[in-house]
Amino acid sequence: MNFAREGRPFIFAATLMALAMGAAADRWPMPLLTAAAIVCVLLAVWVAYFFRDPERQGERGPRLVIAPADGKVVQVVEVDEPAFMHGRALRIAIFMNVFSVHVNRYPVSGRVAYTHHNPGKFLNAAVDKASLENEMSSVGLESGVHRVLVRQIAGLIARRIVTYSRPGDQAEQGERFGLIRFGSRVDVYMPSDSAPRVRVGDQTAAGTTVIAELP
Q1: Which of 2, 77, 120, 148 could link 53 by a cystine bridge, Cβ 3.0 to 4.6 Å?
Q2: pTM of the full predicted structure?
Q3: Which helix (H) or strand (E) covers residue 44, if one does?
Q4: Beta bridge partners of 79
Q5: What's the chain's Rg over C-alpha atoms?
Q6: Mind listing the pLDDT tens digit for each residue in 67-110?
Q7: Residues known to be catalytic
């Protein structure tokens, strides 16, 4: 199993804590210490599970938009996007819970033409106003004649967005471009006449699920 590099310090710390508590419970066999050791072991397993980074394969193509995140589709809607799309766009929003894989992947191939980090609030990422008020990081991609924007949005628990992308970088569809720690949301904006291939309530797998076709 692969793990996201940003998660390795957390995995190490949780494992060290579990080993220390296990050693203490073995030396002083008291119910309280035993219970604490079990909790620490479960926490270490969960932390490793949260930062898992499985390899992903799936359908690829210049007209396909691939899910950038694991999770549940909470919006498929046409909106205004002035920052990079400069007009109307189709937005597909994917909500990640604390059990989802949190590594994010490029939805299309192309050139990174725009990046922007916006500090903000930490509202529940599933609600609509999170896309306006929450902490977020945006990456705009020029893919052939089309523009596609992918936006990482922090959530109620998430407090750290990691984005590797820099203007001028080449993006490869399905490759990793960042992650968000502990529950969050990723929105994808594409031309308004794109054809969605998912509906609200559908589950997605980053780098695998095709969520739309470009015009």
Answers
A1: 2
A2: 0.81
A3: helix 31-50
A4: 89
A5: 19
A6: 999 999 999 999 999 999 999 999 999 998 878 888 899 999 99
A7: 184
